[in-house]
Each structure stands twice: as structure tokens, then as C-alpha cells.
Design a protein that fits this description.
single chain, mainly alpha, 2 domains, 3-stranded mixed sheet, 9 helices
Amino acid sequence: MPVDLELWNKLNDFEFDDPRNAFRFTDRVARENGWSKTFARSAVNEYKKFVYLAASSETPVTPSGVVDQVWHLHLTFTHSYWDEMCANLLGRPLHHGPTKGGAKEDARYRIQYEQTLMLYREEFGTEPPAEFWPPPSARFASAAHQRWVDARTHFIVRKPKLAALWAGTALATTGATAAIAADGAAGSDNTAAYVIGGVAATALLLFGALFGGTAKRNGKPRGKGGDGGSSSFIASTGAAGGNGKGKGEGGEGGEGGEGGGGGDGGSGCGGGGGCGSS
């Protein structure tokens, strides 16, 4: 059970979705990340836990990639973020800014993330769910390969699926070539039929790799087409209406789940001082 139960109850009851809107915050979280609405709602709940840790901890904390994606989006809902949550609920700002980068910062924020997982266990009495809070090795693995991708103009295929596609294509080509050679040795000529069969098999493999993979998007964390570079933020806490004095810049972002990575980076926040993020 959280130590500051009053703060946690307020955060837990905080409403992100305006019932008057047809397209709500959680809907946008799901759409922009390719998540199911169920996964998006759970991600928002994990974000609330992160905000609680940021506001109540005396040591810096760093979010997971998935939680970071929710934080990024919440910042664009400026009234909800700055007025309703920071000013009215927390009584202090929680800022977000870029990293200086470099190995030293990466190492620092990896340590902060490990400490955040420990704080999570202590405050909530449970293991952080791996689909939202992956281990540090996964959290900081793929930020340099992250990109925004427009799904209207690009297919998104996981590399293991692509490797299977190339292997299947090679097998189909080899089989067709062998069949043509054997047919020629037997004195008949069905080359056209074998070529058509090989092309059809390759097309089926391609279709399965492209559309079989995207069918899973609704249930698994996907990130933004593979996680955007090593973006970061500075989170600071201080008196309401003022700026926190402490700040820090962070390392690189980590992985989400199937189909892509998680978020852009981490963040550190201390209850009475400053926060930094990666």
C-alpha cells in the first residue's frame, strides 16, 4: 500500500477521459501507439503510478518506455496536465525536457530506472508488470532505432517475420528451380507453370508476413513504429506555480512490446527537489 495514501487516492481517481468527448485521451493513447484500448487503459494506470512515485519519492525516478508514451501525450492536453493534475492535485509542476546525451547520462538513468522498479515494489507491494515495466536491458535497448512511421504509406513488419519471409522465398525459388531442371531432364517443358507456382508461393509468404503481423497490433504494445530516437525530458518538482530547482537529463529510451519499441526516454523526479529524464 502506498505510503502517501491520500495522494495515491487522488491520482487513482484522476479522470483523463472527458465523457463529453467522442474521442478521448485513452482512445488517442491507443491509436497513436497501435495498442488495444484495454492495454491503453492499463498503460494510463501505470502512468498514474509513475506520477505518484515522482511526486512522493525523495530520489529521482525514471519511467518505462510505455509509461513515457502516455506522459508525452498527456503533456499535449495542457489544461488537464498543468492545471488539473500539476497545480490542483500535485501542487507543483512536473516538467519534461531534452537530454544532454552521452554514456554517463545513459548509465545514470539506467540506475534510476532500476531504483524506480524497486520503489514501485516497495510502494505498491507487487512486481512491476513486465509488459509495462520491462527490465533495464530491454528498457534502454533500442532508442537509436526508433522512428515515427505513417501507417498509410508504410508497412510495419517485425524483422523476425521478414527473415522468415526471405527464407521462405529462397526455399520456394530453390524448389521451383529444381523442378524445372528435373522436368527438362525428363523431356517435358512445364517451366511456365513452375514459375507461376513459385511467384504465387512468394506472394502468399509476403502477404502472411505483412498482414499476419499487423493483425496483432491491437493487443500488444507497439511504440511509434519502432521508438523515436534518444529524446528526453527534464521533470522538476517545486512549489505550485514555480519551477523546481533540481533537474537532470537522461539516457535513451527503451523497448515496448511486439511490433516496436516503447518510449522516447526516461525521467527522474524527486519529491522535494528536481527530476530529470532520458
